[in-house]
């Protein structure tokens, strides 16, 4: 098919924790090919962080944006940008674009608004979907337009159209963020680098091993990692998965962990912290199937 390559592959290769069985992966390069890919049941694979996939894989086709849908056109749009005030609205940035490389380019250009998301390993689409961020900033700090593909068609929305918030874009699960336009502010490479270094320094204590990232959202703004730490759960291990000794909100793969190991730890934490919390501890990870 034009604009699509289909291959059956182990998903463990595409997740940051290195867990996940096989599926048919659709590498999709164009909007037309994407429209075709969503005609049958599908799942969308971003950068594979925040994701725990069962060892038996998934039966649906797994869509991975690639080619032009994984590249960024950073040329300022002349109609939407305003040099006088330093406002830059970019061309289209594919949902499959890796966030770390994009941030390096924005830093070199001295374009501000997204540097607070430094250190997030994912792709643009997934990061927008969950409004990924740190306490220094989040994806919605720098979005102008979001293009969304579903089996019903393509539509473009602005952040104002969405009820977005902390680690949440309000975009339904399974809706594919095919492309975005970024809204940035002209600054200097030095100033952007300085803020990136600040945000980066806050991650120094995080584990270096294979991990999906933070397991739980911070309940009511309190660090979930701190709560897990206080409950004495750091270092707890099931099979080859462990609650990181460095930070309680990370689960790491010691090598050969299974999805069942990871889910066991998530259950353990939820059970142990339930009495302390007024509401449920909300998961940041997506679990397949
Ligand atoms: N703390 C502990 N023990 C722990 C973990 C944390 O005592 O096991 C303490 C820290 O020492 C610090 C406080 O708790 O005083 C807050 O910790 P941290 O600075 O790590 O912030 P966090 O709220 O736990 C958030 C994000 C991280 C992001 C960091 C740094 C969430 C759920 N977590 O963690 O994001 O990397 O700030 O900016 O929002 C992610 O989203 O995947 C993620 C890891």
Give the key terms:
3 domains, binds uridine-diphosphate-2(N-acetylglucosaminyl) butyric acid, Uridine Diphospho-n-acetylenolpyruvylglucosamine Reductase, domain 3, five-stranded antiparallel sheet, alpha+beta
Report, as a whole number of angstroms, the end-to-end distance: 27 Å
Structural shape = globular
Q: What portion of the residues fall into strands of 2 or more residues?
A: 25-35%
The averaged pLDDT comes out at: 97
Written as H for each helix and E for each strand, in order along the chain, the element string is EEHEEEEHEHEEEEEHHEEEHE
Cα-atom radius of gyration: 19 Å
User: Which CATH C-level class of the largest domain is it?
Assistant: Alpha Beta
Query: Which structural class do you get from the secondary structure elements?
Result: alpha+beta
CATH topology of the largest domain: Uridine Diphospho-n-acetylenolpyruvylglucosamine Reductase, domain 3
Question: What ligands does this structure carry?
Answer: uridine-diphosphate-2(N-acetylglucosaminyl) butyric acid
Helix content: 10-25%
Major β-sheet profile: 5 strands, antiparallel
